[in-house]
Model the fold of this input.
Amino acid sequence: MHDTLYPPRACNPETAGNPFRSSLLSTVKRPLLSTIRSNIRKRWQAWINRRIPVDDRRRFDRHSIFILPTAAGLVFGLLLVVMLLTGINYQNSLIYLLTFLLGALFVAAMHQTHNNLNGLELTLLQPGEGFAGEPIPFRFVLQAPHDATAIELGEETGGAVTLSVSGHDRVEGTLQVASRERGYLRPQRLRVETRFPFGLLMAWSWLCPVTPALVYPKPVVPPRAPEGSVEAGDTEAVSVSQGQDQVELRPWREGDLSARIDWKRYSRNGEMAVADWQGEQGSPQWLDFDGFPGVDHELRLSYLAALVLDRERTGEPWGLRLPGITIEPDLGNLHTRQCLRTLATWQRSAPGEGVQ
Amino acid sequence: MSLKPSLLPTRALLWLLCGFLLLLLPQWDRLPVWLAAACIALAGWRWLAQTGRARLPGRWLRLAIMGTLIAVYIATVSGRFSVDTAASFFVLAVGLKWLETANRRDFFVLFFILVYLATVNFLFRQDIGWSLVTLAGVVVTLVALQLLHTPADSRHSSFHGLRRLGGMLLKTLPVVIALFVFFPRMAPLWSVPLVSDQARTGLSDSMTPGDISSLAQSSERAFRVTFAGETPEHRDRYWRGLILDRFDGRTWSQWQQEPYRPLGRVNRDAGLEALADNEYDVLMEASGQRWVYALDNSRPVSANITEVSGRVFRLERPADTSVRYRMELERETGTAGELSPAERRQYLQLPPQGNQRSRQLARDLAMGAGTDLAFANAVLNRFREQPYYYTLRPPAMPDDPVDTLLFDAQRGFCAHYASAMTFLLRAADIPARVVAGYQGGSPGPDEAYLIIRQYDAHAWVEAWIEERGWVRFDPTAAIAPQRIESGLRDAVAEEGSFLEDSWASPQRYGDLPLVQWASLQLDRINYNWQRWVIGYQGQSQMDLMSRLPGNIGLRELGYLTAGLMGVALLVAALVAAIRHGGAARTDPAGVLVSRWTRLLQKRGSTVPAGATPLELARMTEQQAPAAAAVARAFARDLNNHYYGSGSRSRPGRGSHRSTELRLMRRRLARIRRELRKRSTVHGPAQHPS
Done:
């Protein structure tokens, strides 16, 4: 209800992918034509963008559903013309009748196809997370006031998922969106299309989701151990820390890992102290952005991602240090997730923030 | 490399196969047996491949099959080209396409071909039964196309597809009927080849009395006649078609070959105007021939037939579909005219040799008879008095057939006796000719029309009698009067040879009233179908339109059709808007907001998308300070409505909601009044700063 009251932001014309890249005119070199073309395209984009608001939830109505015959539909139209000519030239009433019947059916199919999409509500439930280069799952839910058959949800170019829903029901579907680089992944426009019932016509609209998915850097195993970051191997973290003079001890706080507690000190005087490596450079527990001098920033992030995964596998605690961001050493699922997310979003701003 | 058959849904393919077989059915008697068998085999192969019991052929095998079948086709067609052979090739192409149907694109190609195959079927078969079969084939094909685009689960069964399609067809039916009635039936744009050049059952342009007549064994319809006035008696119903005036000793044929005329575009139809009292209307089945049948003293009324010499009539082009034409009966003129010497020679022509005994008989009879008329009557008397028999099982007469018939066998049917009598007349120097056509006909349902069937085919004699002109003599009437009085069935009742080979014909069981009744009712349905659906063409349309007010020509019909389509589309759009608009308008407060926004925009404010109610109130205040209070109140209402303590989910608050809405509407009305007052004082689009 609210979205009718406060229409959200529209798709950004600059960032939105253009689905109507005409190859027909692309060979024409004349600047005037190309100006007109880009002008038309810009207007068309602007027109679409007015109609397709950016939102995770969208209800398709007749203002935003587009319908055109498919290639098969065009051939069908041609066939009808040929049939009509045959009917005229042979003065054959039955051929007239068949032509009119199929023609009327084509128009009826237009309504069917349009209605199949009309009134549907598509909601992005949850964008997934994953590593760059992998498909990222986006979970959607489709709700319909009537039976809707074979609704295809997909990117303009790329994978798609086909959903069917019966009246007043909801159905969930997961769309795998290809990811190329780390950061926020927001498909500019997802195409919601149906060709039901005959495939002669297609009705479509777009969904411009707001909530982006997170794409972690693609893990790349560093060629050698980073400077100052010694592979721990079998040696325990604590024993490594014992060799360090600069270990700062601080009182135990709830939530500290038991592995970090200085048990020797505890046995000596019963004081629970935790070894704190804050501010310390080159510690083996630290995965440090600066540990790969001279390496491209993105590649450094990839190295770090691989190291994070490696640490998680071996089950030893680690901390992550990026310029401006520091994550305390820790272990566990949540910690891994947090580190990876930080790697994904470091120096990236969420899309749409600049659009307002 | 072999194709993977599994890409297509099995259900869809199965329905498409069924559609193909249904569409093949109406062509069963036209297609060569090998072609039909090959098509079924190829389609079956595709099915086996789909179900995994066979593999589709690889590229080379496919090419080999294609080459073989096309070679066989070329060999059988041997250079003849007609729509018939083209259609056969079309069927062959469909059959071959089955082996290549692997993906959706191929499926679509097959669908298109099948739809056109249905079109071709209508060229060959137009009676109601076969038309329904063809339409059923199209429906099945459409279901197949639907199944291609539906997920394969229980909620989307083939039955659902069929029901949906039925609903769509039902909804579009009024439009289809309107289009059918009003779409302007233009004249053909160019001349088209004949649908079929194959011989059909019916009269031929020559008659060899020694041959066994196959027509007498056929109960197919030749034509149907509706009389405006009284139907003539059975014995007077001689339907003249052809004049056979050239005899070579065995065979009668036409002296003049059918004159070559460029093929007319199509046979025009005879229109629907009410028949005048002396008119009759003939609905002739497709005969593949140009000639038409008419009673004595008939004159053409409809423009699609013309008279040729000998008072017989011809169509514009061979009747490759059923044709309707109109004739008018004139009173006998009595003016005989003269036979030109050339005509006289033509009608006296006999081969120089053969049938010597008959020539002698003619001389003997001529001696006794004084006049030509007396001679003709003497011949008839001889037939009547001597033991001549009417039979459908005459002996073969290879040599001197006239002699054999008259003196030895004395058994034959109409063709034999007509041939013999014409021979005798000519031998006696009386111009004479054989007339081929039909005689009699049986009443249709409720005696609304006459049905003339192939077994009513008949041959008789016309002789030139001075001062009377051409006079009809029927030797068969002298030998078997029942044939003329009541038809072939009674004439050969004793012999039991009536339709002895066609056990499936309902006419054979004429003594069973139920069979007769059913067959007549069927005939009535077919008659109306042919007359009103198939026969609804240019002239019929014009006649029908002339009954409507206004002078409706083809162009007006075009406008009318376009208008009708526009109205139909509009109605459909409106229905859709009402049905789906209900869902969009479920938020009445939202409607109020957009109305408010429009009001402000009309006064010149630029309202950003997504402005809150309070922002709107501020804008209203700027425009009309007097409305400030009410606008703020309205904004508060809206905020309460959307974000208030929530009456939305609580039941039993419906009445409260409606009063709330009423209040909001009143407030909006006040805002509008204030804004309007403002604009009349200061003019529109003024922003007080």
Observations:
- The first strand of chain B starts at residue 206 and ends at 207.
- Confidence is low (pLDDT under 50) at residues 646-653, 683-689 of chain B.
- Residues 345-414+421-427 of chain B form one domain.
